[in-house]
Write a structure and sequence with these properties.
Blueprint lengths: L1 H8 L19 H15 L6 H14 L2 H13 L3 H10 L3 H20 L1
Length: 115
């Protein structure tokens, strides 16, 4: 029973991963390009803070900028935030990376079930 309680404590407060394709805003081409440039500028800074990451993320999600979402996925994966990385890859869409991550997660779950 203790193991179960320990596992439940590890569930994020926000719950489980919810993945859905957000509606991208209908933006004129020039404004979309400007926003993407701003998102890239924020994301590519050497000293990037969490607020800048979140703003770049909002921009990339709003514009549906695939490359930005993939780079965010890579960033989150590097920070050991696998579920958020998976979400970014899914929304990009980047099926090769999504499948790779899902396969790894299945292997982890298999190991857990063996215990």
């Amino acid at each position: 029973m203790k193991k179960k309680e320990e596992l439940l404590k590890k569930v994020p407060e926000s719950g489980f991963l919810k993945i859905s394709n957000p509606e991208t805003a209908a933006l004129p081409r020039d404004k979309r390009a400007l926003l993407i440039r701003k998102g890239n500028e924020l994301f590519n800074r050497e000293e990037i803070n969490q607020d800048e990451i979140e703003l770049a993320k909002k921009i990339f999600l709003t514009t549906g900028y695939t490359d930005g979402l993939i780079r965010l996925g890579d960033y989150y994966l590097g920070k050991n935030m696998a579920l958020e990385a998976l979400r970014m890859y899914w929304l990009a869409p980047y099926p090769k990376r999504v499948n790779w991550m899902l396969e790894r997660m299945v292997l982890i779950m298999k190991d857990w079930l063996k215990e």
